[in-house]
């Protein structure tokens, strides 16, 4: 880390620890890179000094207010340092510190490092210690919406943890629907919707509602992989998780209508391939049956027109179905 970054985080008026009277009793402990390091990292003087004192404090096991302040400086310089975060937690416990102040500190750090796993983990531990999740939905909403990154994996993971651990499901569908309305291709929002619905339970009524919801979205944007994946996921939840796509003929009929109207979204075509494969296998059709030929034709279209990059996969799908049907009907593979 260069000096300019150190100046930004610690300030131009930062006083070296070696010049602070209250630190005279601590002998800094330099990093041991061995006698002949292959690649020597060019740490700035500030970075080197802070971590030399950090190593010394850890080595002597000191857990004090000055140790806590030192971790703050160290984490400003390297917010991904797991060892410093762990030691900070140990110091907080020892001091019986006000953990609400720690949450405020973490909100600031997350605002600057929203994709840093260590800070989110530390936040989780502090919330567990407080047994108070009251700020977590707002915090993650800020990270996902106000910071302009609606697909931040760490924020979503933390949000799901808070919802699951403290039963905060009540208003989550409203939040998720807002994100989907803003960006229907937001796969993270669709995944969150599935997470909530799965908790509530995939009853027949819920499945019908979700299928209607998703098909309405697909009618708006037909080439939306997120919506198609969600549609198939919901359909598979029927019959206690053993349903196939043909369990919902009304959905299949709508998709076939879209196809007949000229839509050739690769996700729509892939859906029909799965539907016709299921039908052919269920009926134990011959490899030359009309259903089987539908699959071969659609696979050929995918390989040659709509999904060329995965042409070998679609060629495999067609060949695999032919082999399955041949075996089922007693023919040669």
UniProtKB/TrEMBL annotation:
InterPro entries for this protein: Prenyl_trans_a (IPR002088)
Recorded GO MF terms: CAAX-protein geranylgeranyltransferase activity; protein farnesyltransferase activity
Record bears the keyword Transferase: yes
GO cellular component, one term: CAAX-protein geranylgeranyltransferase complex
Cofactor: Mg(2+)
UniProt keyword terms in alphabetical order: Magnesium, Prenyltransferase, Repeat, Transferase
Pfam families in the cross-refs: PPTA
EC number: 2.5.1.58, 2.5.1.59
Transferase keyword on record: yes
Family: Belongs to the protein prenyltransferase subunit alpha family.
Protein name in UniProt: Protein farnesyltransferase/geranylgeranyltransferase type-1 subunit alpha
Organism: Drosophila ananassae
């Amino acid at each position: 880390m260069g000096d300019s970054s150190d100046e930004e985080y610690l300030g131009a008026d930062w006083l070296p620890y070696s010049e602070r009277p209250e630190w005279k009793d601590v002998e800094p402990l330099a990093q041991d890179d061995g006698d002949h390091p292959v690649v020597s990292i060019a740490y700035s003087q500030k970075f080197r000094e802070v971590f030399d004192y950090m190593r010394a404090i850890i080595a002597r096991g000191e857990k004090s207010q000055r140790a806590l302040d030192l971790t703050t400086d160290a984490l400003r310089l390297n917010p991904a340092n797991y060892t410093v975060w762990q030691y900070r937690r140990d110091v907080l416990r020892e001091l019986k510190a006000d953990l609400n102040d720690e949450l405020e500190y973490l909100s600031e750090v997350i605002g600057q490092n929203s994709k840093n796993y260590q800070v989110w983990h530390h936040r989780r531990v502090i919330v567990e210690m407080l047994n108070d999740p009251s700020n977590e939905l707002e915090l993650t909403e800020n990270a996902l919406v106000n910071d302009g990154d609606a697909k931040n994996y760490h924020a979503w993971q933390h949000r799901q943890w808070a919802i699951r651990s403290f039963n905060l499901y009540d208003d989550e569908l409203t939040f998720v629907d807002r994100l989907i309305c803003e960006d229907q291709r937001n796969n993270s929002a669709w995944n969150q919707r599935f997470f909530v619905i799965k908790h509530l339970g995939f009853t027949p009524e819920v499945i019908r509602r979700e299928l209607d919801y998703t098909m309405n979205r697909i009618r708006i944007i037909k080439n939306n992989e997120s919506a198609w994946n969600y549609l198939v996921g919901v359909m598979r939840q029927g019959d206690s998780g053993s349903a196939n796509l043909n369990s919902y003929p009304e959905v299949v009929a709508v998709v076939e209508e879209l196809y007949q109207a000229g839509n050739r979204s690769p996700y729509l075509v892939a859906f029909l391939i799965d539907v016709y494969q299921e039908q052919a296998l269920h009926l134990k059709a011959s490899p030359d049956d009309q259903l089987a030929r539908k699959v071969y034709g659609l696979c050929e279209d995918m390989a040659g027109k709509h999904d060329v990059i995965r042409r070998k996969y679609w060629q495999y799908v067609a060949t695999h179905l032919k082999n399955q049907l041949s075996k089922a009907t007693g023919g040669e593979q």
